[in-house]
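Exam revision sheet. Question 4 asks you to relate a sequence to its structure. Input first:
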Amino acid sequence: MLKSLTLENYRGFHRFELHDLGRVNLIVGTNNAGKTSVLEAVHILEALGEFGPIWSTLSRRGEDFFEESEASRTRYIDVRRLFHGHEAIVDSRLSLNAETDQGHDQFTALITEPTPDEQADASPLLENFEPESVSELPPLATALALRWKNTQTKADVSATVDMTRRGGIASNAVRNLARGTESQRIPIRLITASSLSPDTVGELFDQVVLTPDEDFVTEALRIIEPSIERIASTGTDRGRPTYSRTIGYRGGLFVRCSSIGDRIPIGTMGDGIWRLLGLALALARTEGGILLVDEIDTGLHYEVMENMWKLVNETAKRHNIQVFATTHSRDCYESLAAVCRDSVSENSEVTIQRVERGKTRSTAYSEQEIIAAAQRGMEVR
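Answer key, structure tokens:
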């Protein structure tokens, strides 16, 4: 479990530290303070040897571009956006470090000189150009050196991927990267509004069908709709072309309610049910790992948030999951305070971490401080 997290030269942070982390951590702050960036940093750091979190982080934010030729159209992610100040010059370096209950985890990314092969490929382009014409040359490639280290598993995974001077990395450049083994990685999952696609939720649900987790998921949905008896997938709509999906399409998932005779498409029951379904499935499939949830209260009415936090807190303890979530909502943290009142622990397993622009360290609130702030109506967001 992460005890502290330090970000250096990463996105909007020159240097920033979160400290006194617990099992459940709610990250608060104003818009553009870096709350989501913290979740993405944990995802990159703990996804040992996996380039996928870097690719998904940049593409999800629209930090990509296309280059076209007569033969093809290639998509690139813009890696410069990960570096503080968006500089992608040679020797630019960022690092993510975490102190854990088992040791130290580290991720570094370094922009390096072109490899000898790349320099050889580029040299003919330079031979016939005068100095004033060099700006007309195609951008020379550099490289991005990546390294993940984990003291608990003694894993040390390195990879180098080609990139352009514009900071672009193409999808075909990452296919053959070395990865850590399954035994070296812990389960880690990032939930955003866009990540809860019908196909993703359907695949997660297929993994819990006819297991004890199926009952857990159904019970979670009863937080919003107590009459739900069962949820099931027909599987017939999976893979339906995107253009044919109507607004509210929910991937062939249906629910049966005690108050209604016929089955109901889950999309009929609103976004709150869908969001809670995704959260419950993610909890069920992240045992022993880390769950990251952006805007955890999205789609949820304030009256159900306390039960949502009970679900998260109790499941995190039972299945040894560390949770990081973000919110803008006062109702969300006050509901968390109500859960803290019911089960205060000596080691403060629940924290609020306030992120503020211009500061180098989060303001951490323990369970007792969360309760006191809610009782006095103090603003902690």
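Marking note for examiners. Residues 11 and 82 are 5 Å apart (CA to CA).
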